[in-house]
Structure formats: C-alpha cells, structure tokens
Design goal:
127 residues; mainly beta; 3-stranded antiparallel β-sheet; 7 strands; 31% strand
C-alpha cells in the first residue's frame, strides 16, 4: 500500500484583478486591455496553454467639478466673510474672505480697520 501525500497548491489571486490572470499557472497577461467587452468568454493561457473561462466586468466612476466663472466668462458673485486675525505682535489683521456664490472661488483681502467696519456694516444692512 502506498502512502498518499497531500500537496499544497500555491493559491493564485485571479479574482477581480486589474489584468487577466491564468487560474492554473498564475500567468498575468499584460495585454488585458484587448478584452474590454463585458461578458464571458473562454481563453487559452499564453503561458501554459490551458483553457479557462474569463468573465469581464466593467465599472464606471464619475467625478464632477465646478467650472470657474473665469472659464465661463462670467462675473463672480461675491459674498464677504469677515475675520480678525491676531498675530503674535498682538496687532489685529483685518481680513475679508471673498467667496463667489456660483463657483466657490475665494480671495483674501487685507483691509484697514475703517474699511473693514464699513464693509461689515454694509453687509449687515443687506442681510
């Protein structure tokens, strides 16, 4: 009677990969882009020659970004945000953050105390 020896096979990562991987020998096909059609087909491995089933899934993602007013040749619609920034020298720097309501572009203006107070007062009257 002969002894049966169990041989462990190295696990091959072939599921949901970025390139086609042969499930038998592990060969990775760098030309996987040739098989972009979604669905199933049978392929022969370019390395070991064995036939295997290939399932191709295509996924989509979408990114959207605002178009700036400059790109649209439009004027910004500014809104003001008022800040007092205190430096180590204990002098307060008065800042107005201008933010466009349409494209969210922003700019920072450093202003005098008088201008800051006047613009803040004008802003509060509008609101």
């Amino acid at each position: 009677m002969s002894d049966i020896v169990e041989v462990e096979e190295e696990e091959i990562d072939h599921d949901c990969t970025s390139n086609i991987v042969c499930p038998y020998c592990g060969y990775e096909d760098e030309d996987s882009y040739e098989h972009y059609e979604e669905g199933e087909t049978n392929l022969d491995c370019k390395d070991c020659g064995r036939n295997f089933n290939l399932s191709v899934g295509v996924s989509y993602y979408f990114s959207s970004n605002r178009i700036s007013c400059e790109e649209e040749n439009e004027e910004h619609e500014w809104t003001d945000h008022f800040f007092r920034k205190e430096e180590e020298s204990k002098e307060k720097e008065l800042i107005i953050l201008l933010e466009c309501r349409k494209c969210k572009h922003n700019e920072i203006e450093e202003v005098s105390k008088e201008e800051w107070l006047q613009r803040r007062s004008d802003f509060n009257e509008k609101v």
